[in-house]
């Protein structure tokens, strides 16, 4: 059976393991803090690759940042990673084929092949974490766009410049739907700069009404965004993944979305491919 | 050369002509007021079809409303057309193949085959008229979604219920980017219910500063929507068509969009396939 040496490169952690062509993880998951210099990142990758490349058919890298349409390089900037990250020559790191894909796109592909959107030829995946990632599948293919950068959930929630987004623009969906957004909602609604996302989640668990209102406001903004995406894509389903997804009321969300769209009823689902869906998805893509 | 008997069925007018496989209009354009009963619409179609079907290979109908994925029927409601329009059995109207597609999708296909987005494998077309239509092409295919209803430009411009959209929901792009929206902007900014879209256009031509501000506000809302679409699709280009498209400053729009997106530079273009792009596009699709 064919295998991939898989990596997931994020701003904080780098994960690595071996994954087979059915999407199964077949070796230990190794975990590293993301090095702070370009050289130490490439050294880490080289070391892992030299250790394992003889055992695999391909090197599959899920990474932060947009990946070009030939799946060979990161394009543009990747906020949380060291500057110059997009200049790394990934191909030169191995004698085997090296295949890159954006982490959210990779996770969406894992959901499509073995997870919540399995069998859905049109789906939208939203990863709700510190930020918001997006991966869109249309006619059983990843939506990449002309340069590979498609699927960015930076559509506007207001037209009149209220909240600065991490991308440098204003009022993107990301800055109303992320974990960061939940903290900003709490700051604004409680007029308290020190409140944390955890305070809100904890308060909700204890039945604190103010905190419940804050969570509902945040969830409603996510619903507003999903309605727009469902009207644009008419997808079979919308999949929510990421650490913040567990805090939404998925059934209430599905009911509200479907009561207010012009397209056809759409399932809203929690992701099922697990924490390593990025590595699984990119391996399945690389082994295609 | 293969030919289609083409129709464009809208809420006000029905057009009909013959179009060949290169997209050329090869007979006179006939124009009718849209009848107000179901029977009189089908009678009109039957009459035209019986007159011309022996001369063509296929009947190609661009229509208001979403069209299913087998291009045989209208699904859901079509605001401006007689109730029950979606129950018409179009296939039964001719012994030849009958092929339907949504009018905005058809026009987008015409732009892709012979117009402004020719050669662009990913594009978004917005039709700015009384309402707003959308047609999206991805990997050289129309985006249809699971039921055929994709491409609806009903994503939200505000999350908090300000302006009711014609679809029944709130604050959709359509109700900020259409001709109707320009009138609503003028009503709000001048506090005058009687001002018309024409008053604004006329005032702008005369250099009236208030009217220029209103037009700019409307154009800015369109820009806000386009930024979101460009971040989602990373398209080669965005094409603006429809009667209101001539009032936007397309160069200023392109500059502003490209200064504020996370994907890659995108051309903004005016449509080039002409007033009958719906009939041309659906004919080219039907003759594929």
Structure description:
The structure is a homodimer of 288-residue chains. Chain A has 288 residues and is an alpha/beta fold. Chain A has two domains: 3-108 and 276-286, Nucleotidyltransferase, domain 5, CATH 3.30.420.40; 119-270, ATPase, nucleotide binding domain (Nucleotidyltransferase, domain 5), CATH 3.30.420.40. The first copy, chain A, has helices spanning 38-52, 103-114, 174-177, 179-190, 197-205, 209-233, 250-258, 277-286; strands at 3-9, 13-20, 30-33, 58-63, 66-67, 74-75, 97-102, 123-128, 132-138, 141-142, 237-241, 267-270. In chain A, a hairpin with a 3-residue loop joins strand 1 (3-9) and strand 2 (13-20). In chain A, helix 5 (197-205) packs across helix 6.
Keywords, separated by commas or semicolons:
homodimer; alpha/beta; Nucleotidyltransferase, domain 5; 33% helix; five-stranded mixed beta sheet
Q: Strand order, main sheet of chain A: write it out.
A: 3-2-1-4-7
What is the general shape of chain A? globular
Count all strands of chain A and give the number.
12
Q: Largest sheet of chain A, described in full?
A: 5 strands, mixed
Question: Which architecture of the largest domain in chain A does the CATH hierarchy give at level 2?
Answer: 2-Layer Sandwich
Q: Which series of helices and strands of chain A comes N to C?
A: EEEHEEEEHEEEHHHHEHEH
Please give the count of helices of chain A: 8
Strand content of chain A: 15-25%
- What oligomeric assembly is this protein in? homodimer
Instruction: Estimate nothing, just give the exact number of structural domains of chain A.
Output: 2
Computed CA radius of gyration of chain A, to the nearest angstrom = 19 Å
CATH H-level name of the largest domain in chain A... which superfamily? Answer: ATPase, nucleotide binding domain
Structural class of chain A: alpha/beta
CATH topology of the largest domain in chain A: Nucleotidyltransferase, domain 5
Q: Summarize the amount of helix of chain A as a percent range.
A: 25-40%
Which pair of protein chains has the largest interface, and what are the residue counts? A-B, 52 and 52 residues
Please state the average pLDDT score of chain A: 96
């Amino acid at each position: 059976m064919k295998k991939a040496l898989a990596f997931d490169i994020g701003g904080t952690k780098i994960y690595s393991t071996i994954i087979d062509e059915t999407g199964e993880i077949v070796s230990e998951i190794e975990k590293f803090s993301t090095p702070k210099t370009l050289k130490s990142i490439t050294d880490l990758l080289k070391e892992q690759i030299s250790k394992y490349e003889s055992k695999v058919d391909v090197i599959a890298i899920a990474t932060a940042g947009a990946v070009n349409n030939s799946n060979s390089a990161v394009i543009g900037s990747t906020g949380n990673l060291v500057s110059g990250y997009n200049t790394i020559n990934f191909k030169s790191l191995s004698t085997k084929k090296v295949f890159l894909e954006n982490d959210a796109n990779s996770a969406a592909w894992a959901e499509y092949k073995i997870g919540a959107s399995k069998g859905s030829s049109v789906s939208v995946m939203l990863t709700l974490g510190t930020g918001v990632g997006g991966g869109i599948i249309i006619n059983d293919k990843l939506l990449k766009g002309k340069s590979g950068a498609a699927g960015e959930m930076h559509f506007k929630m207001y037209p009149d410049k209220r909240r600065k987004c991490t991308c440098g623009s204003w009022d993107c969906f990301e800055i109303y739907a992320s974990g960061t957004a939940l903290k900003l909602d709490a700051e604004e609604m409680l007029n308290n700069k020190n409140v944390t996302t955890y305070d809100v989640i904890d308060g909700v668990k204890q039945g604190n009404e103010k905190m419940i209102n804050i969570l509902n406001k945040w969830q409603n903004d996510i619903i507003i965004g999903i309605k727009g995406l469902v009207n644009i894509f008419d997808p079979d389903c919308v999949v929510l993944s990421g650490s913040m997804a567990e805090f939404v009321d998925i059934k209430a969300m599905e009911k509200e979305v479907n009561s207010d769209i012009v397209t056809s009823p759409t399932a809203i689902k929690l992701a099922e491919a697990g924490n390593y869906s990025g590595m699984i998805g990119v391996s399945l893509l690389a082994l295609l």
